[in-house]
Amino acid sequence: MTEVTHAAHFESRATQAHAARFGMWIFLSSELLLFAGLFALYAAGRVAHPAAFHEGIARSTKTIGSVNTAILLCSSTSVALAVELVKRGRQKPSAAALVITVLLGAAFLALKLTEYAEHFRQGIFPGGSGRFFVQHPAQGLPLFWTLYFVTTGLHAVHVTVGLLLLSLTARSVIKGSIDSTRAYSLHNAALYWHLIDLVWIFLWPLYYLS
Amino acid sequence: MAALLPVVTRPRPAPERHSLSRLVLAGAFLLALAGLSYGVSFLQLGSFNLPVALAIAVAKALTVLSVFMDFGSLSASAKLAAAAALLMVALLVGLMVADVATRELAPLPAPTHALRKDDAVRFPFFWKQTQRWEGRDFEVRIGGTR
User: Fold this and answer.
1) Residue B140 host element (H or E)
2) Contact across the interface for B64 and A209, Cβ inside 8 Å
3) Pick the CATH number of A13-209 from 1.20.120.450, 3.90.1150.10, 1.10.530.10, 1.20.120.80
């Protein structure tokens, strides 16, 4: 009895892997366009209210945002290592790299929540509500902070989904249902995580640095 | 029957394995770029701060795309999907910025010949030199002729 390594409707495992990868890149492209709308709003808002956006950035939690950048970059590296390790048939080190990635992602979310708590404490809420906006009535500030909450919130939702995906994938690697012959499913999960990293790479300078 | 079906072209072979040290080096390079971006944010470069930060972000994104996401080994169809998305992003952001940047504020006051006694004109106040809104509206009420 021969082992089935691909779905019945595919000619071979290579064809299935190709389809999975192609489909994933189309999905990633649609995700990029979802965030692009928010980046476009940011660009328009910044052109219309440059002073208010500078003031908003000056009040952002730069240290936490920067630590989170380092965390996400490290997590992207560890998930890339997990993919390469499973391709070499080294499941245990691959699973360990995935667990590290999940822990880093969880740390990112925890810091993000700390940041939100700090903003709420200062009276900064989405939609321009809160005592901060009464004390600082400059036009454009409510737009900056609303975009901040919506964009980083959407990103945090993606991080959460990515964490679930990587946790399930790690379990499959540990159980042996993902091995060197089925590395493409882990590769796709890793691609999703890299997209999360890519989006943050641009969010960080726009909302925290300059 | 099988002879009548079109020939199915085989997909590219699976991408080659990369050395683990290359991935670790890419990670270290990304952290170094992030450190550079953090450091540059403390310099007073005026209007250059943002372009410099975005240029470093683009360098980081290209590193992630080429090393971690293995963009180079993608099939032409997948590359086309990604390129189309990038083109759409550029069009969306570019045209939106062009729209906002070239808008002109409506001249004030509104057509004065249409104003009658006791009409009120409300307007915001924008300081052009500092690019700052006053933050509250002002109101002028039309009085009677002397």
Assistant:
1) strand B138-141
2) no
3) 1.20.120.80
